[in-house]
Design brief:
Structural class: mainly alpha
Protein name: Membrane-anchored protein
Keywords: Membrane, Transmembrane, Transmembrane helix
Organism: Fuscibacter oryzae
Distance between the termini: 26 Å
Oligomer: single chain
Pfam family, one: DUF347
InterPro entries: DUF347
Length: about 250
């Protein structure tokens, strides 16, 4: 058996390493998730319920493709992230706008759901490491946790920006400062890498969503008025460019 054959048989991580490009695409994806959800539900007139059902089916198909990969494939992984960002936003928006659940309740509820996911994940695998996602069960926990981070981030961001009245710009700055403090804790104060990763993953959602709303919402609502179409297109183009660069780097 050749060395190459042995390497092919080794389990491979199905998710990317955490690099600067990872965080850049993550931030772009969450921003697009906010604006794309608004575009589909409002501008196209599908409504929250129909849009949520349609996007949930599309996300399910993307996850089937992602789970079928033997290792990390940028196009499959980031397609799933963009779609789960949209669905996570729609889940929270549905609960708040269609069913009248308060933003405080959704924030607390998704926090508990995320905590329960981590507890079950750790009880099952004895680890929450993102560097060893090479089984179906670990990847299932991983994507469930990501879904709840997006739903939680949407609820928390809207709670601070709208109900607490900080506005989109100030809310983005607030969560940006929180993420900066986490980075300082990781690089200089010994913050655990896995804990720091998941906290940053949660807080990048309201950070990106706040700036997405700032760019897309009309001036009367505190935004810059670019609209959901232009904002979504700009961020989608940036995501595609970064993913293509990643794929080119893997084949070089």
């Amino acid at each position: 058996m050749t060395v190459g054959a042995v390497m092919d048989d080794l389990p491979r991580n199905r998710v990317p390493e955490v690099t600067l490009d990872f965080w850049l695409i993550k931030l772009l994806a969450v921003t697009m998730g906010e604006t794309a959800a608004d575009y589909l539900a409002v501008n196209l007139g599908f409504g929250l319920t129909a849009t949520s059902l349609i996007m949930a089916v599309v996300l399910a198909g993307a996850l089937v493709v992602q789970f079928a990969q033997r290792g990390y494939r940028p196009w499959a992984y980031w397609l799933a992230v963009v779609l789960i960002s949209i669905v996570g936003t729609l889940v929270t928006d549905n609960l708040v706008d269609s069913f009248g659940v308060s933003l405080i309740t959704t924030t607390v509820g998704f926090s508990l759901a995320l905590a329960a996911t981590f507890a079950l994940w750790f009880a099952s695998e004895r680890s929450l490491s993102i560097h060893e996602i090479f089984t179906f069960r670990r990847e299932a926990f991983y994507w469930l946790a990501i879904l709840f981070t997006f739903a939680l981030g949407t609820a928390a961001g809207d709670l601070v920006a709208e109900q607490f009245g900080l506005g989109y710009g100030a809310t983005g700055i607030l969560f940006g400062m929180i993420i900066l403090s986490l980075a300082c804790g990781y690089f200089w104060l010994g913050l655990d890498g896995i804990l720091g990763f998941w906290l940053a993953y949660i807080f990048t959602r309201p950070l990106g969503a706040s700036f997405g709303d700032l760019l897309s919402q009309p001036a009367d609502y505190g935004g810059l008025g670019l609209g959901t179409v232009v904002t979504s297109a700009l961020f989608l183009a940036a995501i595609l460019g970064l993913v293509m660069r990643m794929m080119a780097g893997r084949t070089a």
